[in-house]
What we know:
Elements: E1 2-4, H1 5-15, E2 20-23, H2 30-38, E3 42-45, H3 49-63, E4 68-71, H4 73-89, E5 94-99, H5 115-119, E6 125-128, H6 135-147, E7 154-159, H7 160-164, E8 166-168, H8 192-203, E9 208-212, H9 214-218, H10 222-232, E10 236-238, E11 253-256, H11 264-271, E12 274-278, E13 299-304, H12 307-311, E14 318-321, H13 324-336, H14 344-368, H15 377-386, E15 393-397, H16 400-414, E16 421-423, H17 434-444, E17 450-455, H18 456-462, H19 466-471, E18 477-482, H20 487-497, H21 512-518, E19 522-526, H22 529-541, E20 546-551, H23 558-563
Parallel strand pairs: 2-3, 2-4, 4-5, 5-7, 6-7, 9-10, 9-12, 10-11, 12-13, 13-14, 15-16, 15-17, 17-18, 18-20, 19-20
Antiparallel strand pairs: 1-8
Helix pairs in contact: 1-2, 1-6, 3-4, 3-17, 10-13, 15-16
Amino acid sequence: MKIRGGKLLAKALLEKGIxxxxxLSGGFFNPALEGMAEYGMSxxxxxxxQVAGHLADGFTRISRxxxxxxxxxEGFANAIPAMMEAWGERSPVIFVTDSSTLKRQGSGGFKExxxxxxxxxxxxxxxxxxxxERIPEFVDRAFNIxxxxxxxxxxxxxxxxxxxxxxxxxSGLHERPFxxxxxxxxRSWPCPEDLKRIFDILMGSNRPVLIAGHxxxxxxxxxxxxxxxxxxxxxxxxxxxxxxxxxxxxxxxMGLADIHQYAxxxxxxxxxxxxxxxxxxxxxQMNFGNPPLxxxxxxxxxxxxxxxxxxxxxxxxxxxxxxxxAFFEALLDAHAEKRILFESxxxxxxxxxxxxxxxxxxxxAEKKAEGSSKLHPLKLALEVQGxxxxxxxxxxxxxxxxxxxxxxxxxxxxxxxxxxxxLHPGAFSMLGVGVPFALAAKLKHPENNVVxxxxxxxxxxxxxxxxxxxxxxxxxTVVIDNNGGLTTISQQQERLFGHNQHVATDFRDIPFHSxxxxxxxxxxxxxxxxxxxxALQRALDCGKTACVNVRTRDAISPIVLATTNKRDKxxxx
Length: 573
């Protein structure tokens, strides 16, 4: 039996267990759409290719399994920002481009673009399929590469003439492997001698800290992380911008390893004798492993699940190639055998400092709120969480909004606030991911409420994606932190240049709530604290995609203040 290349592609993806596809429908890949529909795969159409990419990224982060973003050749250019965001978070999204005809390649074909070359720096693997009978082979290779070692996005380009041509339904199955179903990704197990060297360091430690990155998330070992922290009484921190690994309410979680967004982390790092970086990278967020974030007196140990990750960590004093879960298991075994024991005083001191920090931040927020009817963004984030339940998802998006929300999440968690999950921009701080991520959470968990706290600038970057929530009957609640501009940038301008003039950062008064009403949703404008909680409750209860448009103050966040405290310091590095 002969089938079109597009249907052969759909069949190969389905064999890998992929059932979710995001796209902006295009004529170039109609055969693939037809095949996906016939095989019962879920195909969600979006108003823009970047939205499709962010949706695929968000869905992949939550499910921890690959999802497809499929776009046309001109749409590929629109999807590049989403590809970059997925690359920063190492999200194994499979990007598929239906490219210009192979027959006339290089002669100016319709919508011809060198998508393979463009995608290479932003993916683990980028290739063009030049023989339709090899479609299953390329899908198999791309899928395995996306999940192996340090995961990440991949890209396949399929020329339109191959997409429409016919091939044998069982193409490729006369060669090994005969069955192309999903395989379990290989895991690294620690070399005993290398593990002993790390344990010897820990046995001589009195004040260890553990900083976890998204390698822990993609290995699915965050519960082992928490168990190890609780058993050994090690304070745990999260690398900024990376996937949340522990609930903020966890007794072993302290906060971000960021001295600006969580000031007590400075004390922890300055007084620790060993820092374990597990599943993370010594990049700009970790000051490349250098002082003053990591003092010379501290032993810096990096544990990563792939050689690729370890290559980024050349500044480490010691490194270990190991799956995070395998390391946590070995650590717990060593503790059970009483080979690695720590006194609780160091752990308790870090907990105490977290509590003092929460109280101070609350006092500062209340004091700053005096004399203004507009809400402080920190107060807004705290109030939003107050209206949410333990099965609700929170998504944050923006610059200043993101920073204040991170602080509020830690504060609320310290007081016992539990949420189902938290999503936010990754390492590139890409604006506009909020609504697509929220829709992805709603599609994956339709029974749960999903709330977005978005800056006005962030919503303007990706707000068009709100239409997809109506189309898919997947209502979410969007809370706009509306301060009338790109505050993170305007605040830098004020402090860097010594005047109050803003250049290309201010917005007019935009009635975001009316936009939602016009689309068939619910919208309210909030101008005071007293109006906020009732408005939030109505939005959550209305059963529609809703907007709570909140007028907020222009309040500089600690991280922006710290990075612009000198006029000649414009970089967070």
